[in-house]
Amino acid sequence: MNKGTGYGKNSLADHLFVVGELALLIVSSFIASYLFSHFITPIPFDVRVLNAVIFAAAVMLSALSVGLYDQQLRETRKGIVKRVVITLLFSAFLLEVIVFNIFASISIGAWYMLWSCAISAALITSFRAFFHYHDITRISRRRVLILGSGERASIIEKRMRRTVDRRNFEILGFVRIDGDKEDALDNDKIIDLNVQEDLFQYVMEHAVDQLVIACDERRNMLPVEHLFKCKTRGIDVVEILDFIEQETGQIAVNLIYPSWVIYSDGFEAKKWFKSSLDYRLNVVLAIFVMALAWPIMLVTALLIYLEDGRKTGASIFYKQVRVGIDGKPFHIIKFRSMGPNAEANGAQWATKDDMRVTRVGRIIRKYRIDELPQLLNVLRGEMGFVGPRPERPEFVCELEKDIPYYSQRHNVKPGLTGWAQLKYPYGATTEDSMEKLKFDLYYIKHRSLLLDLVILIRTVEIVLFGKGR
């Protein structure tokens, strides 16, 4: 499993996809620099090569930030084109405004950038359309057999029904094991197989790549000898928990048992490379973001004051008690996005179309501008840039009663953004909290400096496309 930057096993198709796009970006750059040399002024070959490398790196970084390399991205063709255009605009800004201003000697010119972006836009959109139309992922799709047809096995069918969920594997079927709950799956999905006698032969005959243990009752029910023979022949044998984690980037909280948490890899809190960004890096990043965002923060404060602050005397900021690391409470600071008496009737879940939100509040909540004052919480060491979003004590007490392992999300510092915000849409119910906890636990288990950086880069996608808060 790729434990550093995401989830799932990087297949041959994934590698071909990335290499293909990299090659097309380099080709686009060379064509643009050739046109520039032919029609405007000659460019040395070494400058062309350097620009090709820098251009490709900038575009791929921008593509990552808007979710174009999300393995389970659900978008229409129009949506993909939109993201490609945004990617190229970002990369052009990054290069022209920052990189080529600092290193002016390697800049070819504005016409080069325009041609590079236009050519790469055409090539990348065509390449992606061809890649998905012909479903290139089939060349490396794993053949998976599920041992189990009961309640636990049905979770796989419910969780991974869509084509995009199964881009890396195909399920041959579900094998009934004694002790499985009846009628959990449709009969047409169940393979009639005597696992105690014929499992190994079936696996060999059908070229199975992976066996998933998903039976409801394991004690004395599994064909251990057959599983051992499969293992020695190179067949991957995994638990349902590990399979779901591997393919969805979340941990199935309702399937967790204590020994799995204790013996599984991950969850270490004290190793530096497996912890979230340390305090010094958070402080440096917070100061850098504040230096860039202070004009936006100033305008936001003024708009809040003009809308209702001068009439009511209410503060432009909103302080609220949240639960931090080790369950310790702290005051989170945000721009006020609701009316002064929004919680006159006590603590309430915020909803998607909350009537308590002001006109200015709707805008700053949509683009997460209301979160910017939390940079002060980062400077105080109460929060990091990346981590589970902190929740209110009133709700934490309820959620800990209803959701198993909910308190484990307090083993790390809360963050401004997180894995759950990337992977789950906006929601404010107990069910939504359960779903987000699955992603939070995945982050806690796999947290690393590299994963934090990927989440930070992809937070751009949250802001632009209004994903989870």
Automatic annotation (TrEMBL):
Protein family: Belongs to the bacterial sugar transferase family.
Primary location group: membrane
Keywords for the protein's UniProt record, in alphabetical order: Membrane, Transferase, Transmembrane, Transmembrane helix
InterPro entries noted in UniProt: Bact_transf, EPS_sugar_tfrase, Sugar_tfrase_EpsB_2
Entry's transmembrane regions: 12-37, 49-69, 81-104, 110-131, 281-306
Protein's UniProt name: TIGR03013 family PEP-CTERM/XrtA system glycosyltransferase
Annotated localization: Membrane
Record domain Bacterial sugar transferase: where: 281-464
UniProt membrane topology term: Multi-pass membrane protein
A Pfam family recorded for this sequence: Bac_transf
NCBIfam families in the record: EPS_sugtrans, EpsB_2
